[in-house]
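Incident log, support desk, overnight shift.

02:14 A customer reports that sequence design results differ from what the structure should imply. Their input is reproduced verbatim below. On-call engineer (initials T.W.) acknowledged and began investigating.
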C-alpha cells in the first residue's frame, strides 16, 4: 500500500532535519507528536529520600534531561554546585549542553564515547570520587551493572520521570506509518488507545528494546532501524517508501 502520511512519536525538530528532506523528496506528509514527556520530581519527594548533595564530588550525566534536572534540583534546594565538582558526560552532546549551566573551560569535565561502558573507563580512573547519578525512573540495567562492576561509590537519584502524553485528539486520525523510538512510546499508544488495531498501519521502530516492546504488544513490525544498510530511521523510512510507492 502506498505511503502518504507518517506520524513520528517525537517532538517536531526545531532546526533543519532529515525528516523535512524526506517529506519533500518523497512527497509524504510527516507529523510529529510526543507520545511521552518528562516531568521533574519534586524537591519534597527528593528530600524524603534523605539525599544530601554536599557529599558528592562527581556527577554522572547520561542525557540532557539529567543535566537540566540536576541543576533544577540544586537551585530549588539552594545548593551551590561547587566549582571543583567533576562531571562525567556520556557523550559530547551532553558535555556541550552542560555549557548552559557552567563555564565549560573552568570545570573538570570528562567525556565518554556515546556508550556507558566507554564512560565507565573514565570513571574507573577516578575511583576515589563519590559519584551521584541523576536519572529518570527508567534506567537501563547496563548503567548500574557497569558502576557496580567498577566497585565505585555511587548513588542513584531519580530526578525526573517519563509520563504518557494525552493523545485523545488523535483517536480518529489515521496514518500510514507510525514511528517509535522507545518502549515507552509503545506503552503510550496502548494506554491512550487500549483497543488499537494495526490493520493497514505500518509500524517503524528504532532499537532492539523498541522492537521487543512492539512485538510483545502484538504489533507487526514493517520498518526497523538501525541496520548496516539503513543506520538512521529516515533512511529506513525512505527505503520502505520507495518500495511501497513505486509505480503506484
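02:41 Re-run completed on a clean worker. Output:
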Amino acid at each position: 500500500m502506498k505511503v502518504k502520511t507518517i506520524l513520528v512519536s517525537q517532538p517536531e525538530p526545531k532546526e533543519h532535519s532529515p525528516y523535512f528532506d524526506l517529506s519533500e523528496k518523497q512527497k509524504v506528509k510527516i507529523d510529529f507528536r510526543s507520545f511521552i514527556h518528562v516531568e521533574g520530581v519534586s524537591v519534597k519527594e527528593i528530600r524524603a529520600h534523605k539525599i544530601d548533595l554536599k557529599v558528592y564530588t562527581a556527577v554522572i550525566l547520561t542525557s540532557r534531561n539529567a543535566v537540566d534536572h540536576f541543576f533544577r534540583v540544586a537551585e530549588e534546594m539552594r545548593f551551590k554546585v561547587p566549582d571543583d565538582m567533576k562531571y562525567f558526560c556520556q557523550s559530547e552532546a551532553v558535555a556541550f549542553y552542560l555549557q548552559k549551566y557552567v563555564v565549560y573551560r573552568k570545570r573538570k569535565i570528562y567525556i565518554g564515547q556515546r556508550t556507558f561502558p566507554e564512560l565507565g573507563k573514565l570513571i574507573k580512573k577516578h575511583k576515589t570520587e563519590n559519584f551521584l547519578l541523576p536519572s529518570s525512573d527508567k534506567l537501563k540495567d547496563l548503567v548500574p551493572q557497569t558502576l557496580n562492576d567498577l566497585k565505585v561509590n555511587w548513588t542513584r537519584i531519580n530526578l525526573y520521570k517519563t509520563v504518557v502524553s494525552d493523545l485523545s485528539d488523535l483517536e480518529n486520525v489515521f496514518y500510514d506509518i507510525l514511528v517509535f523510538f522507545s518502549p515507552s512510546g509503545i506503552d503510550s499508544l496502548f494506554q491512550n488507545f487500549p483497543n488499537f488495531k494495526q490493520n493497514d498501519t505500518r509500524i517503524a521502530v528504532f532499537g532492539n528494546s523498541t522492537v521487543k516492546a512492539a512485538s510483545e504488544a502484538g504489533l507487526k513490525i514493517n520498518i526497523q532501524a538501525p541496520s548496516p544498510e539503513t543506520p538512521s530511521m529516515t533512511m529506513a523510512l525512505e527505503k520502505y517508501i520507495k518500495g511501497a510507492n513505486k509505480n503506484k
